[in-house]
Amino acid sequence: MRRRGRMFGQGELRLLLLHLIAEQPRHGYELIKAIEEMTAGSYAPSPGTVYPTLSLLEDEGAIREVAGGDEPRKAFEATAQGREELEDRKEEAEALVERLSGHGKRHEERRRAFATPEMFRALGNLAQVVKIKARKGGLDEDTMAQIVDLIDEMARKIERL
């Protein structure tokens, strides 16, 4: 159902927003943040996609503005019609939440494994030094072979850690 290169397939953002609103009344910003948390920060839908989708859900009668809200932001709650739709599409909504949560877990694992500032700095330093040497014309065949050997040796040492 999901299209390549996109987080959501046709109608999936609408279903997810309805699901999140049915869990508890929320406004647009809270929905964006909930999805961002679900994906461990790897994806946050733009307001330009969320707010029109909320308007569509409201026009369809699936959600309504929370009565008596004193916040400047408009919070929404699911209507009986919206809850009925969610019940009919329960498996689809649960699979969508599971997919996004799984995406978030994988993203978090990759980030934890490789995203320390020190690691990025060290790798950046290595790449920069090699780039500067290459631009200065200081990489003849022998020097290039020495650099490759050094990098391969570091890789073997890291593998043994």
Describe this structure in words.
The chain has helices spanning 12-23, 28-38, 47-60, 80-88, 90-114, 117-135, 141-160; strands at 26-27, 63-65, 75-78. With 161 residues, the chain is mostly helical. It has two domains: 12-114, Orthogonal Bundle (Arc Repressor Mutant, subunit A), CATH 1.10.10.10; 117-160. Helix 2 (28-38) crosses helix 3. The longest helix has 25 residues, at 90-114. It starts with 11 loop residues before the first helix and ends with a helix. 18% of the residues are buried.
The count of domains is 2
**Element pattern in H and E:** HEHHEEHHHH
Could you give me the name of the CATH homologous superfamily of the largest domain? Winged helix-like DNA-binding domain superfamily/Winged helix DNA-binding domain
Number of beta-strand segments: 3
Strand order of the largest sheet: 1-3-2
Distance between the termini: 42 Å
Largest sheet: 3 strands, antiparallel
CATH hierarchy, class of the largest domain: Mainly Alpha
Structural class computed from helices and strand pairing: mainly alpha
